[in-house]
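Q:
My hope is that you can spare some time for a protein that puzzles me. I hope you can help me see how the letters and the tokens relate. Thank you; the sequence and its tokens follow:
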Amino acid sequence: MNMIMTAIRSSVVLMLLCGLIYPLVTTGVAQALFPKQADGSLIESGGQIVGSELLAQGVDSPKLFHPRVSNAKYDPTASAGSNMAIASDDYVQGIADQIDELKKDNPKLTDIPADLVTVSGSGFDPDLSPEAAKAQMPRISRETGISEQQLAQLVDAHTKGRQMGIFGEPRVNVTELNLELIKQVKR
């Protein structure tokens, strides 16, 4: 009986420590030191939350930049990669289908950046390479009347460099870029 009581006391102490105290302390520290990130890196526009810097959103409008393809159809409850091998016939056909779809909206596109036709691992990659964003400029220019030169300046202004100067690749957050583009169109 003594061992059972010791086990119960240990379980209660560990549940309180690991299930209540530790999460509260880490959440408090995160809120104090990194409040924007702790709240989900939310993007606001006009006083309303329109998305997160961390999650891509589906875009159908030809007037806006399109993010990477998503196997999860941009449903945040269904994160999914394709898990297909690069050499599989299904993968090759999927890439060919994406290229065909991309060329419908961008008929003059010849040099296709890989991130415009490949799926990210999670299906929610919010960023594109600057080249992938710029590859969409002729379509957007045609649809909005904004010159490709102005669009290039917009992409360049929203391009983030490598983290700490050495990690990753330059990238553009599609949601933030589209919000700025919408402001440009309204002017």
